[in-house]
Write a structure and sequence with these properties.
This protein has five helices and 16 strands. It is mainly beta. It has a 16-stranded antiparallel beta barrel. A hairpin with a 4-residue loop joins strand 12 and strand 13. The protein starts with 18 loop residues before the first helix and ends with a strand.
């Protein structure tokens, strides 16, 4: 999963130099277990998985006549992030499960995770700590209510205990998790640890999904599944301040809601899924219009904060084109009246891409992906940044000559061993932070991922 956002300024200092050693240690610990390949039981009482991901990214210097407090650094730089996660689950009763995900996080993303709305490292939010940091990323209970129909197997996986359930069922989840665990899914682009890494490609950019500083929240999700469709509803807590570490307990005034309908279909034996959704957020947010009317642009956004709402919609689509090639697209929109609060500064976004398995060239477990995204913001948001505003979530060059942010990403995931994959990655960003005066900038990366 990928969860975005970024760390506050006091957690964005320093540089991590040797997280690769931690990845190697994790690989050594996990490798013996990964050599075995037992068939999963038809019905199990527990599930245990682990993962470790190291991402190293760098960029050369690029054209920039000026920089502000939240600019993507114009001088050449490199940085890296690391995460280690355990996914533990136990079945308490036939239809009741509890899941616990402890994580260790470390590192910093490029430019301290600011300056590009479609940020290039999906792990940048999580690993924004100079030293290893513990996080209880997920702790939740899941209740399944079977409603009939044929039996459908649920395989042993991360946060899944193996068992067969009725195809028609209602699933209720309550606790701490990421809103993106349940919504805006996509077969080919939804996990920065194994697929694309750019925020606006792995998520619908304009869905300002509720989350704390490392991408998690608390909430309730109900899912009604049938053979051909699923209806999801979720309500989640918002942070007290933009990108804040604490959640707001004024629940009537601060919460995010989302309703999504998944339509699964098949044509000529090739499968696809459409996932339209609508969302409504309420939080202690600033108003761009009120800020622009303020005599002090420097503090106008925070001074204007009050409990307000933001609405929007999105669509995630994936389609199998051949047995080894798939296409996907994302479209999202929000009203842009209030400040971006928990994800990133995008009010309009459209992304599309292709993903191919290596079966076509004799490496069936490899993956080649290429995608592009265009992000935009509304006029009031543009005017705020052009006036020198820097209190926004991750942007603020001190000035702005507006242009849509355009990004291309290509990656190749090579399975070195059953439990280890290495993925070189290239991203090319035009108008970083919507600024025609800055960039373009190429970003080179490599990812090592261990999973059991």
């Amino acid at each position: 999963m990928s969860n975005a956002g970024h760390a506050p300024a006091d957690r964005r200092r320093g540089r991590l130099r040797v997280p690769a050693a931690a990845v190697a240690a994790c690989a050594w610990l996990l490798a013996p277990a990964c050599r075995a390949d037992p068939a999963p039981p038809e019905s199990a009482t527990w599930s245990l998985h682990e993962q470790a991901t190291w991402i190293d990214q760098a960029h050369p210097s690029f054209p920039s006549p000026y920089e502000g407090a939240n600019s993507f650094t114009a001088a050449a730089e490199s940085d890296r992030t690391f995460s280690f996660s355990v996914f533990a689950g136990i079945r308490l009763f036939p239809e009741t499960e509890i899941y616990y995900n402890p994580e260790l996080l470390q590192g910093h993303a490029l430019a301290n995770t600011v300056g590009i709305a479609g940020f290039p490292n999906g792990e940048g939010a999580k690993a924004a700590f100079p030293n290893l940091h513990y996080s209880t990323s997920r702790l939740f209970i899941r209740q399944t209510i079977e409603l009939g129909g044929d039996k459908a197997p649920v395989e042993d996986d991360q946060n899944q205990v193996a068992r067969s359930y009725d195809e028609d069922r209602l699933t209720l989840s309550l606790g701490k998790f990421s809103a993106s665990d349940f919504f805006d899914g996509n077969t080919y682009s939804h996990d920065s640890r194994t697929q694309f890494m750019n925020w606006a490609i792995i998520e619908s950019g304009a869905w300002d999904y509720p989350a704390d500083v490392v991408g998690y929240t608390a909430g309730f999700v109900a899912e009604w599944n049938t053979k051909n469709w699923m209806l999801h509803y979720g309500i989640f807590m918002e942070p007290t301040v933009p990108n804040g570490a604490r959640l707001d307990y004024h629940l009537l005034d601060a919460h995010g809601q989302i309703l999504q309908f998944d339509k699964r279909y098949s044509a000529g034996g090739l499968t696809g899924t459409l996932r339209p959704f609508v969302f409504w957020n309420q939080a202690h947010m600033g108003s761009y219009a009120d800020t622009l009317a303020s005599p002090d642009i420097a503090t106008g956004l925070s001074s204007s904060r009050a409990y307000r709402s933001k609405v929007g919609f999105g669509l995630s689509w994936d389609q199998q084109l051949t047995a080894s090639l798939g296409a996907f697209a994302r479209l999202s929109w929000d009203d842009g009246r209030t400040e971006s609060f928990a994800f990133t500064e995008i009010d309009r976004s459209v992304a599309a891409g292709l993903s191919s398995s290596g079966a076509q060239w004799g490496r069936k477990n490899d993956t080649l992906g290429v995608a592009a995204v265009i992000n935009a913001i509304v006029p009031a948001h543009q005017a705020y940044l052009a006036a020198g505003g820097t209190e926004g979530l991750i942007l603020g060059d001190g000035a702005l000559r507006y242009g849509p942010e355009e990004i291309v990403e290509i990656y190749y995931s090579s399975q070195i061993m059953k439990w280890l994959s290495i993925s070189p990655d290239l991203q090319y960003v035009v108008h970083p932070g919507y600024n025609r005066d800055r960039g373009p900038v190429p970003i080179y990366g490599v990812r090592a991922h261990v999973e059991y």
